Amino acid sequence: MHRMGCLATLLLACGTSFASSVPQPAQRGEEVLVSDNAVGRYGGSLVVAQRSEPKTLNPVTAADAPSREVIGRLTADLIHINRASQQTEPALAKSWTISKDGRQFTVKLRHGLRFSDGSAFDAEDVVFSFKAYLDEKVHSPQRDLLIVGGKPIEVQEVDAYTVRFTLAQPYAAAERIFDGLAMMPRHLVERAYKEDKFAQVWTLTTAPSEIAGMGPFRLKEYAPGQKLVLERNPYYWKVDGSKNRLPYLDELVFLFVGNEDAQTIRFQAGDTDIISRFSAENYALLSKEAASRGTELIDLGPSLEYNFLVFNLNDLSPKNLGKIAAKQGWFQDLKFRLAVSSAIDRQGIVKLVYAGRGAPLWGNVSPSNKFWVDQTLPHPPRSLDKARELLKSAGFSWRNDGRLVDRQGQAVEFSIIASSSNAQRSKMATIIQDDLSQLGMDVHVVPLEFRAVVDRVFNTYDYEASIMGLGGGDADPNPEMNVWLSNGGTHLWHLGETKPATDWEAQIDQLMQKQLVQLKYKERKHLYDQVQEIIAANVPYVFIATPNILVGAKKKIGNFKPAILDPNTLWNVEQLYFLPGSPP
Amino acid sequence: MMARHKILAAVVLLVTLHLAILFAGFVAPADPVVQNRDFPFAPPTRLHFVDLRGHLHLRPFVYQWTPRPDAFNEYEESRDREYPLQFFVSGAAYRVAGLVPSRVHLFGVDAPAQIFLAGTDSYGRDQFSRILSGGQISVAAGILATLISLVLGTLIGGVAGFWGKWIDESAMRFAELFMVLPWLYVLFGVRAFLPLHLSSVQTFLLLIAVIGTIGWARPARLIRGIVLSAKNQNYVAASRGFGASNVYLLRRHVLPQTYGVLLTQAALLVPQYVLAEVTLSFFGLGLSEPTPSWGGLLATLQQYNVLVSYWWMFAPAVALAVVSLGYLSVANAFHERLQSSSS
C-alpha cells in the first residue's frame, strides 16, 4: 500500500514536470542564442489555418508541406537560413569552420542545450540524426541533398560538442544543406531505428511524451480532423535581449480547414490570427475590410516559384503513345517553342490570374531572387507577328480558315493538362489556349486531378503539354540541379536522359557542375547567369509568371516579419507575441 | 380561365427564351469566347437615358468604361462621350442556328465602348453572350436527353405492358434497379472511365447519352401502366377479335393513350436534365473551357471571392430558374388537362 502511494507520487511528479511549459530559467553553462528581436511579452495562443492535416511528425520521412510546416516548429537544425536575409546563421551550431579545400566542415555545438522533454542534446544526437537521414532503408526525401559528388557526407563525432562533416568534393554553399535537417533525440528513437521501425515513429497518434525536439514548441494535443495544438518548449535555446527565454506564445494551434477559401473565411471571421499563401482575389476581398477588422495585409512581392508550360519531349514508345510522338516534331522545333513563348500574353496572365499581384517570367529565376537573377536576360514583349514569322520560317503555313498546318498539312492541335485543384494554373491554360488560337493552333485544356498530372508527367509520359510550377524552396541554385541536369529527376521536358540529348543541355550540365564546386559567389553567379541565358534561348520550359507572396495577420501580433521564403509567416514564430493592450 | 393565361404566359416565355438561345449568335452582342483582358469582372454596363446636361434620350446610350489603374476589378465611366445603342450592327462572325454564317447582331455600341448586359467573367468575357450560347448546350442537352429517355421508356414500357409475363417482370425489375441507382455517382463513374481527350462535340453527345439512358425507368413504368390498362379495354379486345395484329393494336389503340403522359413527362424531364447537365458541368465533368454551358458558368461561384463579390455571376442561375419554372408550369398544365379529360 505504502509502496503504491510512493509510486503514485512519483508518477505525479513526472507528469507535472513534463506538463509544465513555463519557460525554464537559464542554467549555468547553457550557451543560449540571443535573438535581436523587439522584447515581447509572454502569453496567448496563436491560431493558424492549414489546408490539410500533416501526414506524419517524423522529420526524417516527412515529404508533404503540411507535415513540414508543423515539424519545422517542433524541431531545429544546426545551421539555419534566415528567411529575412536569405543568408545562413548559426542555430544549434555555435560556429563552424571550413577546411581550405572546402571539403571538411567542423561544427561546434552549443553547450548545455536540452530537448523539449528536458534531456540533454549533444554530438551523439547529431551523428544519430544524420545516420537516419542517410540510411537508404529510411527513404528520407532529404537524402539526395546529403549525397555530394556521388558519395554520402561522412559524419564523425570529434567530442561531445564537436562534429566533423567530410564531403567527397567541395560543395558551394554547403552550409545551406543543413537548413531544415531536424536534429532527433537519440534516446527516444534509437531503439525503433535499430529495429528497422524508424519510418513508423512519431505518427500523429504518438503520445506527446514520446516526441521531443529542439524547436520552439512541442506537441500538446492532436484532434483528428480538427486541430493540432503545440505548447511552448520550456527549454528552447533562444532568449531575447532581456534574457527572457523564447518563445513568447503559450500555444500554437493549427486548425485544419480544407481549402484556401475556408482559410480566407476563418481569417475574415477572426478565428485565425495569421494567413499566408492565398490568392490575390481573396487578398483583395480581405483588404477591403482590413482596417475595420484590425488586420494587416502584406504583399511581399514575387515568390521564387516559377510556373511554366512544358512540352513533352520524352522518348516515347510509338506503340502506345504514337499520337503524341507524331506531334513531337513540332515540340522539338525551337522555333515552334519560341513562337508559343512569343504569343503568350504574360502581362494579361499576371493581371487575370494573379489580379496584378505577380510578375511575368522569361527565365527560371524570379526577379525577387536578387542574389541570383540574371538582370541582362531579355524580356521580349508579346508579339503575334514575331510568332507568325517564326512559324513561317519553320515551315508552318495557314489554311484558308486560319488554322495552322505543318509541312505535311497536318493541323496543329494539342492539349494542355493542368491540375484542377490549382485554379491559377487552369486559368493560365485557358488564357494560353486563347493566345495560341490567334496563331491558328487548336489547343484543348484538360484539367486533371493533381496526382494524375504528376503521374502523366513523371511516369507514363501520356501528355502533350502541361502547366507546372517548380522552385520556391531556396534562393540558392543548388536545389535547381535536379531540374537542369540532363539526368535530373525533375528534368521534366525529357526525363531519363542517360546523356544530354542536345548540345545546349550538355552545356548546362557542365555549367551546373562547375557552379556546384565553385566556392566564390561572383564566379558562381557568372556560371549561373550563363545557365539562365541558355535556358532562355532554348525554351525547354515556356516560363509564364510567378505569384506574389501574400500574407495577412492581426495587427495585435508583434514581431510579425513575413518573408518570401517558406514558411513565410511562421519562420520566426518564437519571436511572435501579442501586443500589450490586446487580449491574447 | 386564369390558369389559361398563366399557361399562355409560360409558353410564350419558353418560346421566346428558346428562340433567343437558338439564335444566340444574333441576339448576343459579342463572341462568347473572346477575352477582354482589360475588363475582368466588369459589372453590367449601365444603360442611360438622361445625359449629363439633363437631356432625355429615347434611344438608350452607354458610356465607355475604363479600368481603374490601382485595382484589377474596378471601373469607372468616362462620361465625355455617349455611345447610343445601335440595332442590327455588324460584329463578330457567328453561324445562325449553327448553320448560316453571319455578322449581324441584334444590338451593340460603337467601339471603343462595349456593352456587357450581364457583366463579364474573370477573363473579361461577355456574360450575357455566354449565358445565351451556354443555353444552347444546356437546353439542347436537356431536350435531346429527354427524347432518348422517352423513346427508351416507351419501347421498354410498351413491350413490357403489352406482352406481360416474364418480359414484364424482368423489364420492371430492371427498371427498379435503375431507379435506385444514385445517378450522380453513376455519372461520375461513367465520366471517369472515358478518355480525357474528347472534343466538345464528343463530350456533349456523351453527356446526352449518359443522362438520357439513365432516366428511362420512370417513363417506362408509367407507359407500362397505361398500356396494361389500355390493352384490356373492351374496344381493344373487340379490335383483336376482328383479327388486328399486335403491332396494329399498339400503334392504333394503345400508344395513342400514352401521348398525354409522354408530353407531361417530357415537360418534367427537360428541366430535370438541364439541371443534370448543369450539375455535371459544375463538377467539371461537362464541356471544357472555353465552351460555355450553364453549369460551367455557375462553377465559378465555387470560389468564395466570386460568390461574395460579383452578383452578376449568378445570372445563369436566373436563366436556369426561368427555364425550369416555364417547363414545370407547362407540365402542370398538361397534367391538369389529362386529369380533367380522364375524369
Q: What does this protein structure show overall?
A:
- The complex is a heterodimer of chains A (584) and B (343).
- With 584 residues, chain A is of the alpha+beta class.
- Chain A is 30% helix and 22% strand.
- Chain A contains 16 helices and 26 strands.
- In chain A, β9 (154-159) and β10 (162-166) form a beta hairpin.
- In chain A, α15 packs antiparallel against α16.
- The longest helix of chain A is centred in the first third of the chain and has 18 residues, at 2-19.
- Chain A is globular.
- The two termini of chain A are 46 Å apart.
- Mean pLDDT of chain A is 90; it is low at 1-19.
- Chain B is of the alpha+beta class and 343 residues long.
- Chain B has 13 helices and five strands.
- Chain B has a three-stranded antiparallel β-sheet with strand order 1-2-3, with no helix packed on it. A two-stranded antiparallel ribbon of chain B has the order 4-5.
- In chain B, a hairpin with a 7-residue loop joins β2 and β3 (75-84).
- In chain B, α1 (2-22) packs across α3 (127-163).
- The longest helix of chain B is centred in the middle third of the chain and has 37 residues, at 127-163.
- Chain B is elongated and about 85 Å long.
- The mean pLDDT of chain B is 84.
- The chains are: A alpha+beta (584), B alpha+beta (343).
- Chains A and B meet through α5, α6, α10, α12 and β22 of A and α12 of B.
State the shape of chain B: elongated
N- and C-termini, Cα separation of chain A? 46 Å
Q: Sheet bearing the most strands of chain B, described?
A: 3 strands, antiparallel
Count every beta strand of chain B, where a strand is a DSSP E run of 2 or more residues. Answer: 5
- Amount of helix of chain A: 25-40%
Compressed to H and E, one letter per element, the order of chain B equals HHEEEEEHHHHHHHHHHH
Q: Which structural class should the secondary elements of chain A be placed in? A: alpha+beta
Strand content of chain A: 15-25%
Structural class of chain B: alpha+beta
Q: Can you tell me the residue ranges of chain A where pLDDT is under 50 for at least 5 consecutive residues?
A: 1-19
Number of helices of chain B: 13
Proportion of residues in helical segments of chain B? 55-70%
Question: Which stretches of chain B are low in confidence, meaning pLDDT under 50 for 5 or more residues running?
Answer: none
**Number of helical regions of chain A:** 16
| Rg over C-alpha atoms of chain A, rounded to the nearest angstrom | 26 Å
